[in-house]
Write a structure and sequence with these properties.
- This protein is α+β, with helices and mostly antiparallel strands.
- The chain folds into three domains: 100 residues, Pseudouridine synthase, CATH 3.30.2350.10; 133 residues, 2-Layer Sandwich (Pseudouridine synthase), CATH 3.30.2350; 67 residues, PUA domain (Archaeosine Trna-guanine Transglycosylase, Chain: A, domain 4, Roll).
- Helix content is 22%, strand content 33%.
- It is built from eight helices and 18 strands.
- Strands 1, 2, 3, 4, 7, 10, 11, 12 and 13 form a nine-stranded mixed beta sheet that branches.
- Helix 2 packs parallel to helix 6.
- The longest helix is centred in the N-terminal third of the chain and has 12 residues.
- It is elongated, with a radius of gyration of 23 Å.
- 35% of the residues are buried.
């Protein structure tokens, strides 16, 4: 623990917040994290939700102090567009795998596709793929899969808010998906193929939304590397106040020290219900803590940090101090 603290203190100061990378196909999510560590000169980088190597698109990174905020954003909804190749099943459920079965059954027509897709909208049970980071007795499933082993995996509940078939040129179906965090689109593609009776696998995938982070914000690694080299990367950062979207409370001067030391403060002036999370900022606008309204109109710190004020914010503030 002391060694970790010394390492953080020895790092050169730099911008903190979220950086949205447009992950290229062929890169792992960890490859992106490693690249960002080089661009920014810090080990304190984490990602908000793994993308498979095949996939491209929105991969948000938390930088420096913002790594403390990852738990507040991991559960955000996701959106994807991609394609499913019908008639072929692979061991990884996507195009990176080995074909293990080709169907001789005729491919479905468009009407059958739409009927099958409707069965996957809503809460569904999904079995995690063997080629995944899910652990069994402490061992990632993908390690067992590469050793030729297959084990039972309990299904988990995920939510598919939208599954739209946007095009069909047999054997490929274009899809658009809005879903809960933790959904495996590979598994959805394979299950759709099973439902249709011909099998299938995910041929391509692009994430277009991850919680509050959008495709419009995503920047290629090549562009980010150039901007880092020129000392211009900080303008790409999304400030945590904007990303979190919590109501904002500007602390009084006398409250700053209390919150910084983890103490509760009186919250009668805050018009939010118990359980609401709040971004508490210092008088200068710096983000000091994430707090929660507790019963009895007390506001307790959940996570204390220090991130400089954003240049601008569109967040709705709480009622100002009386």
């Amino acid at each position: 623990m002391k060694r970790r603290r010394r390492r953080a203190e020895d790092e050169a100061p730099g911008p903190a917040g979220f950086l949205v990378v447009d992950k290229p196909s062929g890169w792992t999510s960890h490859d992106v994290v490693d690249a960002a560590r080089r661009w920014l000169g810090t080990r304190r980088v984490g990602h908000l939700g793994t993308l498979d190597p095949l996939a491209t698109g929105v991969l948000p990174l938390a930088i420096r102090e913002a790594t403390k905020l990852v738990p507040f954003l991991q559960a955000g909804a996701k959106s994807y567009r991609g394609s499913v190749r019908l008639g072929e099943e692979t061991n990884t459920l996507d195009a990176d795998g080995v074909v293990i079965h080709r169907s001789e059954a005729p491919l479905p027509d468009e009407a059958a596709l739409h009927t099958a897709a409707k069965r996957f909208v809503g809460e569904i049970q999904q079995v995690p793929p063997m080629f995944s980071a899910v652990k069994r007795d402490g061992v990632p499933l993908h390690r067992l899969a590469r050793a030729g082993k297959e084990v039972e995996r309990p299904p988990k509940t995920v939510t598919i808010d939208r599954l739209e078939l946007s095009g069909y040129e047999p054997p490929e179906v274009s899809i658009e998906v809005d879903c809960s965090a933790g959904t495996y689109v590979r598994a959805l593609a394979a299950d759709l193929g099973t439902e249709l009776g011909c099998g299938g696998h995910l041929a391509s995938l692009r994430r277009t939304l991850s919680g509050p982070f959008t495709e419009d914000q995503a920047v290629s690694p090549e562009q980010l590397a150039r901007e880092a080299e020129a000392g211009e990367i900080a303008h790409r950062f999304v400030h945590p106040i904007n990303a979190l979207g919590f109501p904002v409370l500007r602390l009084r001067n006398e409250e700053v020290g209390q919150v910084a030391h983890g103490a509760e403060i009186e919250g009668a002036r805050s018009p939010v219900v118990p359980g609401t999370l709040i971004s508490a900022i210092r008088p200068d606008g710096a983000l000091l803590a994430i707090m929660e309204m507790a019963p009895g109109r007390r506001i307790r710190p959940v996570r204390v940090l220090k991130i400089p004020a954003p240049k601008e914010t569109s967040q709705r503030p709480l009622a100002p101090p009386s």
